User: What shape does this take?
Amino acid sequence: MPVPQPADTSGADWPGAGNALGSEPSAYLRQHADNPVFWRPFGDDAFAFAAERDVPVFLSIGYAACHWCHVMAHESFEDQETADYLNAHFVPVKVDREERPDVDSVYMAATQAISGEGGWPMSVFLTPEGLAFHAGTYFPPTPLPGRPSFRNVLEAVHEAWVERRAGVEQNARGLAATMSNAQLAGVVRLDGPPELLDADLLPEAVALLARSEDHDAGGFGTAPKFPPSAVLEFLIRHAAAPSDTADAARDIAGRALAGMARSALRDQLDGGFARYSVTADWSVPHFEKMLYDNAQLLRVYAHWTRLGGNEVFSATEAAKVASTCADWMLDALRLSGGGLASSLDADTVVDGVHHEGATYLWTPESLVAVLGPDDAAAVARLMNVGAEGTVSTLGSPLHPARLLSDAGGRLWERVGPKLLDARNLRNQPARDEKVVAGWNGLAVAALAEAGAILDRPELLEAAEAVAEYLAGVHWDAEQQLLVRVSHDSRARGIGGLLEDYAFCADGFLALYAVTGTKRWYRLAEDLILAACSRFIENGQLADSTGESAQVFNAQGQHAALDPFDNATPSGAAGFAGTLLTYAAYSGSHEHRLMAGNILGLLPPLATRAPRVAGWLLATAQAALTGPVEAAVAGPDSPLRRELHAALLKSASPGLVVALQREDDAGSPAGEAEVPLLQHRTAATDGSPQVYLCRGMVCERPVGSVAEMQSRLAGMASGG
Assistant: This one.
């Protein structure tokens, strides 16, 4: 039977006709508000409308900085004929994956199961109940080898829905059941005693990571290559704890950090890092710059600095990389309300056309125009800018691929600012100004710790400003609810996911360690207790609370927990780390056991896929080391400040630092002291001293930096 063709719907006046994205706060959704496609935001109304019309939902998921999302939008969603067909036979729904990672996660799993690939834009066809039955990623406007056109796909799906409806629905239910079984295999229960953590898992993970390392360029695997931030945090912590594999961990981390820092992945002019490289040697980035990448990399480079570096990548070079990364985050992403924006776009619009990376590309001729022929020729050699562009005819990014010589460094210090000034006159990529709670929590921790390690108090001030924004805009103290996203200093949308609570609480705890302001500890405590109420049901941990019935249906009507790190640590891993730190401050045996139960996810991952378990491994390293708890007691004095600063610059894995403050104006008068500080006093002569403890059991207090550092070294080695 021939498939009926639609009438022209370009001027349709039937109920529901029209694009409904114009009033949406998401920058990504608003990018599609002028499409002839009758987009709707994800929600019950869209699926009810699909049920009323008895048609499938076409779900398109992407994000504002995504290059291929822009490409498919221009090729297909701006095309009237394609839009007419899509409107006639489907209910089109747009999702910003950064606002709804719960939606993205479940349908990404379905897409990978159906098509064997994943990525964005994600294109998924759903029943009106939200069950996936066909999926893919980018579809071109005309067929390519091995890839049908988008119109081909639409027609085939419509034909299957009309002609073979029963089979389509049966397959959708079968996929949901399969996904449900997969979720049940990864269940974490928090209502029993955890298994003893096996210390041998960590050396095994280091050995596996060494086997997948790209020894020449640094990092792991081949193209495309992503910054392995969570894995690097594990390697740095492992290197700080004496073992047979500590040196190997340090070497692997050093090569990765050096490779990224000396490449086009890191913007050599402004210090920000791109999302990933399309080449194995980091020479051609995918140009979007994300807050979550730069926050994690800032923290990792700062931690490498306090570890002391190595001969491949020095602490001095790492400090410079961390410092410029922090500057870029604040210059490029800081919003007037105090929060940090999500990203800069991969594309630059020039004369109405999207060009990938256009802002960042150079040719020999464009260098001459800014620097003159002699300096331009030297810079072209220094930064690998050739006559043939590595990205497009617009040119190549700046890619030194090595540590600059003294002469090269002096040249770059002289000409770099000129190039940046010239580049700032070009069209700039768009900024996605939504504020995501969890990513801002990552930034609070990174800025606070970097400020202490790099002796840059202005970074600490920035961390406090972001934390104030989260506390004032995203956290509803009365409802004990964290909202995931805000726009223009107004929180709206779904409640935070497990990762949002975990990363914000971790940020507040990091800020408390640096400032001693009890308010940040109390906010972290409130978030942790709220997360326990919100994400633990019948002893089982979940990433979300089932904000949408469609998501719940698609994952087989079971709460989902994804243990794998992605661009950020998994919610489970982040929560385990935060619980471990909180238990060290509070002495809570209950929360220490919860962390141990989540670490029960680690054994199969550490021995098979450590690259997706970096934050669990980092948390395990802290747990095996103690973590060591440091309570700084006594009145303010130069010595107390010196002791506190030395602790913040210690590489002891997961070290927890508490500071007595009699001048804590940010906390109510008479508020109870943080448990780790209770009954800790100054020395008998009134001078400050530090209590070093494990599980609230403390050694004899110390009153000098040298003795404290010696004791910390002994505790790291099991002493």
Remarks:
- The radius of gyration is 26 Å.
- The longest helix spans residues 165-185.
- The CA atoms of residues 140 and 220 lie 31 Å apart.
